[in-house]
């Protein structure tokens, strides 16, 4: 049964949230309002990024290495606007070249064990017609990492210095075509817009606030929310 409550997290809820994304600005575009609301509620929100978005420009005078540095800084600024407590970047993954592999699964599992989130937000890897390979790869590796992070004999070399297996309680998939939970972001649209403006290398839109409202109206229309973000929620 679809959930159209105004609450951010469904039962059993949770205090610590991890958002796993492929590129800087993914979270701000896809769940920035929800992140702002979680931070307002006093939740502990952390970002994990697989790449630094080094292919996100066609400017011949802006090489990938320089763009990666710019986008990392933009992401940290945007996260601060939303109230995110930490931003972690993995090493060695290039924009557009992320594959669903054991190494990535292992690295995400380690971060889950280190941060011990109750809730994980990530891409829906089963979304029909998802064309970006990084989105698909990050989504599926995150799901696989959640399964592995709770098991004693998965990557036992990680289990030292206080690191132990950890079981995530809930997953919220963004960029989904099978939503079953909607969050009313009407009170934080300006905060979401401010976060997106931090990604200056990626957008020159002057009407970004109006764009957020238009997207939010579409997402929330079916469930009578004026402005919303939509997710597929799965309790574990």
From TrEMBL:
InterPro entries reported for this sequence: GlcNAc_PI_deacetylase-related (IPR003737), LmbE-like_dom_sf (IPR024078)
UniProt GO MF annotations: hydrolase activity, acting on carbon-nitrogen (but not peptide) bonds, in linear amides
Transmembrane segments: none
Matches recorded under Pfam families: PIG-L
Family matches, as PANTHER family: LMBE FAMILY PROTEIN, N-ACETYLGLUCOSAMINYL-PHOSPHATIDYLINOSITOL DE-N-ACETYLASE-RELATED
The name this protein goes by in its record: GlcNAc-PI de-N-acetylase
Native organism: Thermogemmatispora tikiterensis
């Amino acid at each position: 049964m679809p959930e159209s409550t105004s609450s951010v997290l469904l039962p059993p809820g949770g205090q610590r949230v991890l958002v796993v994304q492929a590129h800087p600005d993914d979270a701000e575009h896809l769940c920035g309002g929800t992140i702002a609301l979680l931070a307002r509620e006093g939740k502990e929100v952390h970002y994990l990024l697989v790449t630094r978005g080094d292919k996100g420009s066609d400017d011949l005078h802006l090489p990938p290495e320089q763009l990666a540095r710019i986008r990392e800084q933009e992401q940290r600024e945007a996260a601060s606007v939303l109230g995110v407590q930490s931003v972690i970047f993995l090493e060695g993954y290039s924009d557009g070249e992320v594959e669903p592999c054991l190494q990535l699964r292992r690295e995400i599992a380690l971060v889950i064990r280190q941060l011990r989130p109750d809730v994980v937000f990530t891409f829906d890897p089963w979304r029909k017609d998802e064309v970006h390979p990084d989105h698909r790869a990050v989504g599926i590796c995150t799901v696989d990492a959640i399964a592995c992070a709770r098991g004693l004999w998965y990557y036992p070399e990680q289990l030292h210095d206080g690191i132990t297996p950890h079981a995530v309680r809930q997953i919220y998939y963004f960029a989904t075509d099978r939503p079953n939970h909607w969050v009313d972001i009407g009170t934080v649209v300006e905060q979401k817009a401010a976060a997106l403006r931090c990604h200056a290398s990626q957008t020159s839109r002057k009407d970004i606030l109006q764009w957020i409202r238009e997207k939010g109206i579409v997402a929330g229309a079916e469930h009578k929310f004026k402005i919303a973000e939509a997710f597929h929620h799965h309790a574990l």
